[in-house]
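HUMAN: Mind sharing a backbone?

ASSISTANT:
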Amino acid sequence: MTTVDTRERKQYSPLIPAITAICNGKPGDQIKIVMNDDSAFRDLKEYLAEQSIGFREIYDGDVMTVEFTL
């Protein structure tokens, strides 16, 4: 499973490393993306839904995680 933790990345949108991981992945790859930016998390879930990629959401306080298989 590839894990992308965007919580410490403040220079740019946390969506950039998340989408990069999706674009670089191959069918069957499992990806886990960890965020603490609510707006970016909603945008990521919307993108995954538009791409017909099923995902699992996990909430732990202010930490949000989405897991999916390409």
Observations:
- The radius of gyration is 11 Å.
- The beta strands are 2-5, 30-35, 55-60, 63-69.
- The domain at 2-69 is CATH 3.30.110.40 (Translation Initiation Factor IF3).
- Residues 4 and 17 are 7 Å apart (CA to CA).
